[in-house]
Amino acid sequence: MKDLIISLEATCDLPKELAEKYRFKITPMNFYVDGKEFCTDADTVATSGIYEKMENDARTSTSQISEAAYEEYFGAFAKTGKPVLHIAFSSGISGTYRQAVMAAEALNAAGCNIYVVDSRCGGAAQGLLGILCAEYAEGAENVGAVIKYIEEIRFRMEHAFTVDNLKYLARGGRLGGLAAFVGNMLKIKPVMKVDEHGKLMLDKKVLSRQRAIRTLFTDYRAARDVSCKWCFISHAGCEKDARILADMILAETGEVPVVYDLGPVLQPCRPGNACNVLPFGKQPQKGGGGARARKIPPCSRQKYLNLL
Predict the structure, then answer these.
(1) Helix, strand or coil for residue 9?
(2) 173 in a domain, yes or no?
(3) From start to end of the chain, where are the E strands?
(4) 110 phi and psi, to 5 degrees?
(5) Alpha-carbon torsion 268, 150, 153, 285, what sign?
(6) Is residue 206 in a domain?
(7) Residue 302 pLDDT > 50, yes or no?
(8) How far is the C-alpha of 301 from the C-alpha of 290, rounded, in Å?
(9) Tens digit of pLDDT for each residue in 158-187?
(10) In this structure, are residues 206 and 217 in contact, taking their beta carbons and an 8 Å threshold?
(11) Residue 70: which domain range?
C-alpha cells in the first residue's frame, strides 16, 4: 500500500530524520510555558526554553487537539484521494483520540477514507508503532490488513520510564505532595509503565537513580523480542543516564539504541530528568485487546462514541 498516508501526533517524539524517512505526517500540538503558547510545528521549541524553565519551576502544560483542528488537518490529506491512517496518542492518557474520531467521522460522511487507531501508547512507543506499521504496509493488500497488524502489536510496546524528581508527578496530580516530599528525601525512584489500557501505572519503587536505570535495563532484557531491530531511549535533560543505559544494552545485545530528547508535549508529563526505554515485547501485555480500530463510519456521532 504505497499510497497509504500514515499520520502520527507530535507525541510520537520521533527524530526528524526517521519521520522524514518514513514520510510520516505529524499532527502539530500546542504547549505552554508560564502561560505563553508555543507549537511543535514552528521553530519555537528551542526558543521556548521549556527544559531550563521547568528546572526553575516554570508552569508548563499542554492542550489536546480539537475536533476542528483535526478536520482541517485530515481534510488537507483527504483532497489527495488517498486513504489516511492516523495512529493516535493513547486514549488512556489524553482525549485527542476521541477528537480525531469525531473529525474523521464528519469527513468520512462526505466520502473521505480516514482511519483512526488508538495506539494505547505515546512517546517512543507511538513512534515505533508508526515505523512498524509503515514497514508492514509496504507489502499489505489493504488498509484493513494494516489496522489488524497494529491492533496485534500495540500491546507489545513495553515502554518503561523513571524520573529523578517526584515533585513534577505531584504537580501533575499523579502523586500526593507529602508522598513526593518524603520520596525525594528517601531517594525513592519510581519505575513506571503504560498498561494495556494505555494508562500510566507504577511498576516498581527502587532506591537510588543508579538502581532505577539498572531496573530499566533488566526489564528491557527480559521483555525484548530479539527479532525486532528497533530500540528507543528518550530522555528529558539526562542524556548521560540515557547513554549509560544505551551502553548497557549495546554490551548485552549488540543493539545500538536510538537515543533522543523527549519532546515538549510529553515533557510536562514525564519531567524530572525522565529516562524512557522501549523494547518490542515478546508477548502482548496481559489483558491486551479491547475494541477493534476501524474506519469511522458515517453514522451518528453519539452512536459511534457509544461503541468506544
Answers:
(1) strand
(2) yes
(3) 5-9, 25-27, 30-33, 36-39, 60-62, 84-88, 114-118, 160-162, 188-194, 200-207, 232-235, 258-261, 275-278, 294-295
(4) -95, 10
(5) positive
(6) yes
(7) no
(8) 20
(9) 888 888 766 666 665 555 565 555 566 667
(10) no
(11) 5-29+65-154+289-305
